[in-house]
Amino acid sequence: MSAATSQGTGLDRARLSPGADLSYHRGAWLSPRREAAARPGSEEKAVAIEVRGLSKKYGSFQAVSDVSFEVQAGQLVALLGPSGSGKSTILRTIAGLEAADSGSVLLTGEDATELPVQQRGVGFVFQHYALFRHMTVRDNIGFGLKIRGVSKPEIRRRVDELLDLIQLGGYAGRYPSQLSGGQRQRIALARALAPRPKVLLLDEPFGALDAKVRDELRTWLRRLHDEVHVTSLFVTHDQREAFEVSDQIVVLADGKVQQIGPPQVLYEKPANPFVAGFLGAVNVLPLASLKAGAIGRGPETWLDRPPAEHAEAYVRPHDLDVYSERDGKPYWPATIERITPLGGVVRLDLRIAPDHPLQIELPRNRSHGVGFAAGDEVYVSPRHLNVYDRAQGSFQPVDVHRALGLALQDGAGI
Ligand SMILES: Nc1ncnc2c1ncn2[C@@H]1O[C@H](COP(=O)(O)OP(=O)(O)OP(=O)(O)O)[C@@H](O)[C@H]1O
User: Fold this and answer.
1) Of 105, 220, 269, 414, which sees the most CB atoms within 10 A?
2) What NCBIfam families does this protein's entry cite (predicted)?
3) Alpha-carbon distance 47 to 387, whole Å?
4) Edge to edge, what strands does the sheet with 384-389 contain?
5) Residue 46 CB: number of other CB atoms within 10 A?
6) 233: pLDDT confidence band, cut at 50, 70 and 90?
7) pLDDT band at residue 370 under the 50/70/90 scheme
8) How far is the CA of 172 from the centre of ligand 1 (A)?
9) Which of 61, 201, 204, 236 to mutate for ligand 1's pocket (most ligand atoms within 8 Å of CB)?
C-alpha cells in the first residue's frame, strides 16, 4: 500500500500496527526477516500466505492432496476449480476452521498451523452473508472490534471509514433485511476488514448473487483491493470471475494443484488438458489429421520430440482461421454447419473429416467480409495450439505460424 492510498482510506500504519516487532508492507504485517525481503531492490518478495504440502481426508476420501502454493503480500489470488476440488477445505484450513492431516500454513512468515482461529489474524467472508440480522449495519461492521475491547469512539471512527470505503455511507442505521444481496456482501467484507486482518479469505463471496450483481461486485472488489491492498485469497468455480479479479490463479482438480500463474499465462500456456478445458472453450482434434494438410514441415517437426501418432491438438476457437482457398498454411478441410452471430463475435460450427465437430470464433467484422454460408466447404488453419501427447504425458504449446515460418526459412521439406 502506498502512503498516499493509506492516507486516503485511513488505513494507516500507526493504527494498523499489531505489535512493535512487525511492520506493514503492501497489505501484510511482516516480521523483520520478511520486511527485509520486501524492501525495494531485494530479490525475495514478501510472502503473506504459504501453504506447504497440505493434505486432508474425510473418512477414506482424499479431499486435498499435497497442496502447496504461496500468495505474495498485497496480491489478490483465486483458488479456482470445479465443485468438490477441495477449494473450501484449503481456505478453511488456512483460516484455522479445519485441521489438515499433514502440511503447514504460514501467515506472513510465521507458522500458523497450530494457532487457533482467533489468533491467526485472518478476515473471512462466506458465500452466505453471515450478518447478524438483529444488528444494524454499524453494529455488524463494528462487532469484531467490540469483542476485542476497542473503545467506542475508535469503533465509530473505524466503521465510518469502512462505510466510506465500501460506498455505503448512508446505510449505517439499516438492518440486513433492508439491504440488497450485493450490499450485504459489501457489509460482510467491511466487517471482515474492520479488525485489520493480515489476510482476507473469501469463499465464493458472490456465489449467491445474480449474474449482473456478481459482475458489478467483481469490478468493485478489484477496485477496492487496488485501494487497500490487503492480501486476499478467494475461492471461485467461475473461470471468468477468477480472470477478472485476480493477480494469480491456483487451479485445482481432485484436491491437487494443476497449475499456478497469472490468468493470461494459464490461458495461453495451460499445463495440461484439464487446465486448457477448464479455462475456456477448446477444440480437441487428432493432430495426425493435420499432416495431410500441412505445407512444408508437418506437425511432427514442430516439437523437439515428435509427438506420437495419436497425439491431440488443443485449439481455442479464436486461434483458428477459416479460408475458402488453401493459402500455404496447414489446414483441416471442413464443412460449415452453422453460423451464429454472438454480438462482437460470430461462431462457426464446422465438421472436419471423418467426423469431428469444430468451433471457430471470428471477430464480427472479419466474418462479414468473408461472407461464408452454412454448407460451404472450407479450410481451417490453426495459429496456435497445444499438442497433448498422452503417451509422453506432455502438453506443449506451438505457435504454428512461427513453426511454419522457421521451416520455410530452412527451406527443408518443401
Ligand atoms: N465435512 C466433510 N465431510 C465429508 N466430506 C467432505 C466434508 N467437507 C468436504 N467434503 C468433501 O471433500 C471434497 C472437497 O470439498 P470442498 O468443499 O473443499 O470442495 P470445493 O472445491 O470447495 O467445492 P464447492 O465449489 O462445491 O464448494 C468434496 O468432495 C466434499 O464432498
Assistant:
1) 105
2) 3a0106s01 (TIGR00968)
3) 34
4) 283-286, 312-315, 384-389, 394-399
5) 24
6) very high
7) low
8) 36
9) 61
Q: What are phi and psi of 410, to 5 degrees?
A: -60, -30
Ligand 1 nearest atom to the CA of residue 237, by list position: 25
- Residue 395 β-bridge partners: 388
pTM, two decimal places: 0.81
What lines the ligand 1 site, CB under 6 Å?
A: 58, 63, 81, 83-89, 237
H-only helix segments in 2-128: 3-9, 13-16, 32-38, 87-95
- Our separate counts of H helices and E strands in the chain read 14, 21
Quote the ligand 1 centre to 89 CA distance (angstroms): 6
In this structure, what C-alpha cell is assigned to residue 50?
504459504
pLDDT of residue 375: 92
Q: Say if residues 80 and 251 touch (Cβ distance below 8 Å).
A: yes
Residue 81 CA: nearest ligand 1 atom is: 21
The yes-or-no verdict on residue 410 having pLDDT over 80 is no
Residue of 400, 381, 383, 392 lying closest to 309 (CA atoms): 392
d(CA 221, CA 5): 16
Measured CA to CA in angstroms, residue 378 lies from 296, 331, 340 at distances of 20, 9, 17
Ligand 1 mean position to 283 CA, how many Å? 30
Would you say residue 200 has pLDDT above 70?
A: yes
Q: What DSSP assignment string belongs to 277-289? A: HHTS--EEEETHH
Atom of ligand 1 nearest to the CA of 85: 21
